[in-house]
Amino acid sequence: MENSQHANEDLAAATRKFWNSHGRELYKQEWLLDMSKKISDALSNSVQWMGVRSRSEGSSPMKLLDYACGPGMVSSTLLGQFDIIRGIDISETSVASYNEMAQQSGTPFEQMHAVHGSIPLPLENTLLATEEYFNFDLIVISMALHHIEDQAGVLSGLYERLRSGGVLVVIDLAPDAYSHNHAHGGEWGYQGDYHAQHKARVQHTISNPDGYGVEEMKDLLSNAGFVPGSFDYQLYPNMSPHASDIVEHDNYKNFSMKPFFIAKGAKE
């Protein structure tokens, strides 16, 4: 148990250090912007599929938690659907990028902002123990689960923060075998000279480099408490960029993107 706790802490510390050091640079990379656009489009088209309750007059505000929020792609995509949006990230650099995005969008701070933190909750973090960070209608964790050692603990912690009937959405990489072209990408699903260098820099922050299949995700969510019958898994198998997206001077002339998925589970 003690060794497992140290492994969790070591990976979390490595992830925090990496994104604090490289986040600003990576968030501007064309390949990452391209991937974020594809995920954003898929998320926008999945709003009804998620099955989140709809707004109604006199009902409580609609709440979204963007966990491991990065610069806020999920929050900005779903902004029009929710009254209150909160982001949480282990990286202070990511939190700052998120809050800059929120400010530039003209969204009031009370409606949307991010804070530094992680789940399960460290004892010293009292802010995330307040009511403000519970009873969410939707929680989304995008392209972060494979950076987490204690995946069961995180998913169980997110389950606790949903209202009854609330939904968790997981977006992450699928196994290469799910791809139409069986491309073998690196971290974030790309291959090529630049991305080989990036993979070498980031691999020490990855707990699962192989992606998550349907049954693995179903088991993870079921074990975290989510209703088994609520599980669904949408695969995006062939997400190769178009030729016009390829930038030769950035040394990724020949690359393709790993398949990714959007999975969901509901709290009873």
From TrEMBL:
SUPFAM superfamilies: S-adenosyl-L-methionine-dependent methyltransferases. PANTHER family: TRANS-ACONITATE 2-METHYLTRANSFERASE, TRANS-ACONITATE 2-METHYLTRANSFERASE-RELATED. This is Uncharacterized protein. InterPro entries: SAM-dependent_MTases_sf. The lineage of its organism: Eukaryota, Fungi, Dikarya, Ascomycota, Pezizomycotina. Pfam families: Methyltransf_23. It comes from Trichoderma gamsii.
